[in-house]
Structures are given as C-alpha cells and as structure tokens.
Amino acid sequence: MDILPILSTLRRHKITALLVIIEIALTCAIVCNAVFIISQRLDRMSMDSGVDEHRLLHIQLADIGDTKDKKSRTLTDLAALQQIPGVAEVASVMQVPFGNSSSNSGIKLDPKQKLSTLNATMYSGENLVPALGLQLVAGRDLRPDDFKDFDDVVRGAAAKDAKSLPQVIVITQNMAQRLWPGQQALGKQIYLMDYPMTVVGVVKELIRPSIWDDSAKSYSMIFPMRMARGEYVVRTKTPEDRERVLAAALAKLKEINPHRVVLKKHTFDDMRHDFFQNDRAMAGLLIGVCVALLIVTALGIVGLGSFWVAQRRRQIGVRRALGATRTNILRYFQTENFLLATIGIVVGMVLAYGINLLLMVHYELPRLPGIYFPVGAVLLWIIGQLAVLGPAMRAAAVPPVVATRSV
Amino acid sequence: MFGYYLDLAFHSLRRNQVLTALMVLAIAVGIGASMTTLTVVHLLSGDPLPGRSQAIFYPQVDADPKGKDANEPLDMLDYRTAVDLWSARRADRQALVVQSQVRLNTAEAGKPPVMTTMLSATTDFFSMFNVPFRYGGPWSEQDDAARARVVVITDDLNQKLFNGENSVGRTLRLRDSDVRIVGVLKPWRPSPQFYAVRGGRFAGGDTSDFYTRPEDVITPFFTGLEVNDGNFLQFTCWQMPERPGHLQNAPCVWVALWAQLNDAAKVAAYRRYVADYAAQQQAAGRFTHAGNTRLRDLMGWLDYNGVLPSNVRLQAWLAVAFLGICLVNMVGLLLAKFLRRSGEIGLRRALGASRAAVFTQYMVESGLIGLIGGAFGWLLTLAGLWFIRQQPVAYADLARLDVPMFMLTFLAAIGASLLAGMLPAVRACRVVPAWQLKTL
C-alpha cells in the first residue's frame, strides 16, 4: 500500500484528521492512567496480611472494661471459647489487622535520638502469634513468663518503673530489614518511649490495622501484654467451621454475661472486604469510565469515518473506474486509520506520561510502567481498525459508475 | 426566525437518526459523568455554615513538651488548656467539644442496649452552629455548670426510639446514668461534620469519614465526662495516660474548642489572648515552648485538613477529561452532519441566506442537540448519584442533585454543544453556493 497519496489526501482534510488524532490521543492518555490506577487498587486489595484470614473470626464486646474482675472474666471467656468444637486457638487482643483503629508509636534505635526512626503499630495479647496464624521466621514466640498485664504496664509507665514494662518484643521481617538492613535482628534493642526492648522473634508478615502509607504497611510489633478489653480473635480448625463457630461463640459469650454489647462480630474475609471498599468502589468506577471512553471513541471514529466516506464518494468512484479493486479501497481506509491512530497514540503516550507525572506529584502514584505503552498502542490500533471497518466496507461498495455522475 | 431555525433543526435531527443518536449519546455520557462527580465535589466542598463560617474560629495551642515552634501545633487541646480558654470567655460564643462512644439503654422494654456515639459540648454549640430544634431546646448555662443530667437527641434517634413523637421530658439511660431529654433536633446533617474535623493530614487523602452523621446524643460537656468516664479516646499523648479513657489530667490532647468572633478587632484580640496564654503557661513551667499557637477560621481549618477526599478529587478530574473527549467526538459528528448537507446549504445561500443566517441555524441545531443531550445527561447524573448513594462511604446519603447543580447540568450541556458546534457551523457557512448547486 502506498502511503504517500494517503498523506497528501490527509493534508487536505486537516480538521477531520486532527479530530481523529485528538480523540485517540486523549483516550490513550486517560485510559492508560486509569488502568494504571485500577491495577494499583487491585494490588492493594490483594495485599498480604500475614494472618490466616480464611480461618479467623473477630469479636469485640463493649463494657466489660470497667468491671472489677475483668481479668478473670476474660479468662472465663477464653476458656469458654476454646471449648467450642472446631476452635483451634483463641486470644484476647488489643487490635487486629483490617480493624481500622490502631495504637502506634515511634521507635528509636538509640535513646539519645531526637526523632523516631520509624512509626510502628503495637499488637498485643497472649497467644497472639498462633491465634492469628502468624509465621515465625526467626527466633522464638513470646513465652508466658514474658507477659505482663496491660494495667500494670500502664501503671508502670506512668510511674517510670522500667521493671514492670515488657522487656522483649517480636517484630515483622519488613520492620527488621528497615531498622537493620542486611543484619540479624534477633538480640537487637529498640527504644519505645525511651524504654529498651529486645527483639526475640521475627514474623514473616503482619500488616497494620489501618494503613495510611503503603510503604510502612507492615511495620508491626507484638508486645508481651495480656489484654482484657473484650476483643477476641478465634482461629477455627477449618474455613467451613467459621459461621457455626461464630454463632456458637456469640451465644456462649452472651450466656456468660448477658449485659454486654457486641460491637463487632465478623470473619476476617468480611473485614478485608470492608477494609478495601473504597479501593474496590474506585476500581469499579474507573473500569466503567474506561469502557465508556473506549466505546465513545470507537463511535466517534465510526461517525467521522462515515462522513469521510460520504464526502469522498466521487473520488472513490473515480478510483474504482480507473481499476482499483474493492480490496484496494478497503485497504486505503484501513491504512489511513492506522496512520492517524499511530500519530494519536504517539501524542497520547506523551500526554499519558505527563498526566502520570502530575498524579505522581498530587496523589503519590508511582511511575507508569513501560508495559502500558505497547499494550495501550495495540489496543487502540485494534479499536481504530474495528471502528473504521464499517465505513471502509461501505466505501468499497461504492460502484465505479458514481464517477461518471456529476463530474 | 428562531422558530423557523428550530423547525429546521428538528427536521434535520429526524433525518439522520443514527448520527443524531450518537451525538446525543456523546453529550449525555459526558455530562452525566462530569455532573455526577462535580455534584459530589460541590456537596462535599461547600461551606457547612454559610454566612457564619468566617466568624467561627478554631484555636490551637501546643502543649506537647517535645513539640517545637517550627512544627504545626497538635490538632486538639489538652483538657486544662481547653477549659482555661473556655472559662476566660473572651469570645462572643464558644463551645468545648468532645466525642465518645457510649452504651445507650432505653426504658422501653425488650430493646437491647446499643453502642452509639455521643457528643459532649457546652451550650453555645447550638446557637453558634445554628443547630435546628424540633422539640424543646438546648440546656442552659446553669445546666453546663451544674453538670445536669440532660440530653439533646437527634431526629434519627427520636424516630428510632419514640417514632418521631415529642420525647422531651422522657428519660434515656446513658451507661449507668439516667438523663432527661430536653431537646430533639430537626434533621441536621452538616457536610462535612466540621466540628469534628482534625488529623486530616494523617489520613492519606482518605477523608470520607469527615462526612459522617452527627452523633445521636448530645450532652453538656462536663456531664458527658462524668457519665462516660473512662471511655474517652485521645487524639494523641506524649506519655501514657495513667488511666486510659480518663484524660482530664493526662498528658494528652483530646478536646476541641470552637470560638465565634464577630469582628476583626475581636479576632485580633483573641489571637493575642491565645498567644499570651501560651506564654504565661510557659512562664509558669507548664509549657516548654509558647510560640506555637494558631487561630484558623472554619474554612481555613477545613482546608488545612484537606477535607475533600482525594478519591473524589481524582474522579472529578477524570470526569472533566471525559467530558472533553465527548466534546471532541461531538465536534467530529457535527462536522459530519453539517457538511453532508453542503448541497442544502448551497441552495439556501443561493436563495439569499446570509452566512450569519446559516451560522445561526447550525448553532440552533447544536443547541437543540445539547438540550436533548442535557436531558439524557440529567437522567444519567441521577443514575450516577444513585450509584454513589449505594456505595459504603460516609457521604453516600448526601449525594443528591440540588437546584444549582440541576441548572448547571443543562447549562453545561447546551454550552458544551454550542462550543462543539462552533467549528462545524463556521465550516458550514463557508460553503460556496455556486459550487454546491452544480452538484445537485
């Protein structure tokens, strides 16, 4: 196919050609960035939490806190929960992944440091590591003799009595690597509110209850503190047991103390679902916009193509009369669309990159990966070819006799 | 003439229905998408207290011993600072505000206790923020001072517990205390829930929680602290509090103070007063530094907290870009439509129609397409807002089309289509009459 005659024709139809180019360029720029944002959201939604999600339940009760015997109440609750058939592990905890509300603290490597090295979240609760199904990759789990009661720790911290505070701590692998890159974390000390704690164990992964910065999402520590705040994690033996165990657990807890209010009762799968609802809504909306955009662009090309064909009926007739085959005419329009689409894609890619730079500044999005450029180009070429097919076939159907009319 | 052009436009739209449908679709989809998101932006970024917001101020004083004058002060006040500033009564009106979760029992048998949200504020809260009452009214200043066991409830809660009847005088049980209802609000839904905004810079753009509903029960400030003692959450602490949840003497910030200052002189005086207070506390040894005080007005405070969720802003940009693409599309389609009728234009020109007349006629046609597209766009906007109302976000129930946005939908649709029609209409009126007549 000879490209030069097409180019010279295009030069005489600047506006129509320009419109097709602009349309493809804008679509390319916006769809590339939208798809990138969608993929970011999907990545976020499949974030590894480090806990055994499909076998976990979370129950939070209110108003057990101010009763005098809350420690023994908690023990009663835990014992009762443990006896429910299908329950593997239980723990009374301070906070859970996907729980949204969290306790966080600055960590120092040296007590003389002015600013904290990083900010990490604090998990605590006896039996927490097995109950959440965490994977220990180095060192040991917290032992019963490491544990202190939460109230004693609070009192000790207020009285500045270092002895009543936890001495050891378990942290995540990511946090260990951030604190001591390339080194063994076990045995090292961190300072929390100026009190030293020794790292005795490292777990593979445990995300924070609320994530406001994805790069710090797994800076978590587990403290040897016994909690008695009416927040429980139950790990079942199999995923199928969950619903039944949840119902049984609630019945049991109500039986022990009917005056409590159940604040939360859900499986971790539901918690993950709720936690990422904003991301899911945004991804859904963007997918809708992208599809609509591609359809609108395709319709636009169809419209312009038909107009163009109608405008050039005589020209086509002349070419047919001079011996051009139907295939020649079809190829002509397809090549023309390919050329326009190519220019549009090149402009669009530059634009896409520019928009991405803007988004990087304002929404802290990473750089657009290179793969989007070839994939986006192929997609737009295909859409362009499909859209021009109808008008091109209509052009090819123009009979040569048109040429003899009105010349 | 306009009537004639309108007639011609209708005629022309009917003649090529596929092309017309495509154009209407382009406008409708573009308008629908952009108006849906712009409506959300409009509803979320409005002034929650129109006419009064510039007189409402939020003082900040940095009590954190580790804080520095170079940093921003903490977002809330410690109890002592808040109460000191409040009791000095240097503003026209002022209110201490703190929120908590509380267990609510009702006298009605058979209903289990529920956890609900409680706002505790001093009585100026109602007059300062124009809170509307259906039954009864706010408590008095004496009630504040006497820690009276009284409560104001929202319309929502009144519907739930008393089927919307006048419940003034009836009793609720908040945790372990009986409180008497003195007022029931009319539906009141400030957007955002401005008096509870803080910590926006730590939210990473996910600020939709600033648009939640107001608390179900409102108690006098000091009453609330007594009734729900032990259940208050700190914004942040610089040391562990001795008794978690009881924060009156704790090294924590957790109370908000709002002040109404009706003129510039008062604002300047209050600003000076807050700075003097910090200096005086530093001299007394309670603060380690004193240069770090702020007095932002309401809109300034909302801005500082970036209340508009970044998702919403991103969607708005996207929708505007989308409208742009639909417009380019529309230009192409109109060009196709107008120039296809070159013969007709030539004939009209030959019969004496001026270029201006041809131009006007095509602009009328574009405007008509815009109007029809706007109508469909309006329906799409309603559908889009319905979709947003189904989303599990705090502002979902706010997503409704108000009158200004309804007008804007049509204005935008007609404006956009006129803009899109400009180029094709110019091209159309440049058609040379004689050349076209020859081809008829």
Describe this protein's structure.
The complex is a heterodimer of chains A (407) and B (440). Chain A contains twelve helices and 13 strands. With 407 residues, chain A is an alpha+beta fold. Chain A has a six-stranded mixed β-barrel with strand order 3-4-10-7-9-8. A four-stranded antiparallel beta sheet of chain A has the order 2-12-1-13. In chain A, a hairpin with a 2-residue loop joins strand 8 and strand 9. Chain B has 440 residues and is α+β, with helices and mostly antiparallel strands. In chain B, a hairpin with a 2-residue loop joins strand 6 (171-174) and strand 7 (177-185). In chain B, helix 11 (342-350) crosses helix 14 (433-439). The longest helix of chain B is centred in the C-terminal third of the chain and has 36 residues, at 355-390. Chain B is elongated. In chain B, 46% of the residues are buried. The model of chain B has no long low-confidence stretch (mean pLDDT 88). Classes of the chains: A alpha+beta (407), B alpha+beta (440). Chains A and B meet through helix 2, helix 5 and helix 9 of A and helix 2 and helix 10 of B.
Number of domains of chain A: 2
Which percent range fits the helix content of chain A?
40-55%
| Biggest interface, residues from each chain | A-B, 49 and 57 residues
Main β sheet profile of chain B: 6 strands, mixed, barrel
The side-by-side strand order for the widest beta sheet of chain A comes to: 3-4-10-7-9-8
